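Z., the sequence and structure:
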Amino acid sequence: MFKISSLNSFSVIIKIGIGLVTSKLLAVFVGPSGMALVGNLRNFMTSLESISTLGFQNGIVKYVAEYEKDKTELQKIFGTVFISLFFVVIILSGILFFFASHWNNQIFGNTFEFTFVFRVLALAMPWYAFSIFFISVINGLGQFKKVIWITILGNILSLLVSLVLILNYRTLGALLAIVITPALLFFATFYFVNKEIYFFSGIRLCYFDSKIFKNLSSYSLMSLVSSVLGPLVLLAIRNNIIATVGIDEAGYWETITRISTYYMMFVTTILTVYFFPKLSTAKSCLETKPIFWNYYKSILPLFIAGVIVIYFLRFFIIELLFTREFLPVASLFFWQLIGDVLKAAFLILGFQFFAKKMTLPFIIFEITSLAILYFSSVYLIRFFGIQGVLIAQVFDNFIYLLILMIYFRKSLF
């Protein structure tokens, strides 16, 4: 775990360094209002990612990890997923391309004209979807280091593409960079998969297995709730901020969310790469308990220490990553950091839903959490302005942590 954590930390440091450059570019050439548009597109892309891969990512990791030594079963998994994704992405790309104007109005509103972005996204979607598929396969095969190196490569590509496009096309360039970069990773992910196992041997119609598709569908329901409904709720909250307190404030919220994403990667990546495969293979509460507490004793204290340092360096971070125009973001750090500590505490418990394919409880808890977040943010923003959204996040994360601790009490205690 130490070796993987160290490499993961190196990857995240690179991501943060690259984020420093791209954030500065966005701050200088796009500004707070452009940052809000970038946030809207990111949320939309997250939803699309889950739809285009049918939410199979965690299911692929689980079943590839389970049947790594069974070549026949692996071929069935590959064939079933590949054929399913192929038809979905073709339909999805068509909808994006031919209804680009509609999506522009839905995501950016009538004021902005970025229809071209959605047409480019339609062409990039198939490469993007299969790139995610291949990363899930590599993760399932236990090739943790390769997953992290692919992440590093993706970050470097993102920097280069963003640099060229933002400097030349400002806001349009920033939006195009978000769309294009993930698709470019297809070639790297395919190379690594093909080195581990001859992938094309499983791409036959005869390998399509309805039983495997049915098993993976349980993960679809879970992923579609969190990865589709979640970003859509964030999109609705951001649009409410724009309508209630203004587009610049929406840009400030996107800015603190962007900063949060950087340091949360220390937790989310190590959970995905190291802890999730272990939870997937644990057979009982007795086997699961040490995995949970290993995380709480080793990863969580380091994260809390890092969060405290971030709070005291908040003004420096804002001026380093952005511009003085973004200094109002400093007032948002306190509630954001508290919310993120609570989130880091419940994330590993949330991964147990996917590891054990607990579909119904996950959907119920997730929808409840999203409802609490949306309605509490709408209510609190009236009294506390943009701070109300952050307080709503803390309230939602606290309730979710309590619910999961009660639900998984046997595995914890």
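Residues 2-412 form one domain. The chain has a mean pLDDT of 84.

Let me know what you think.
H.
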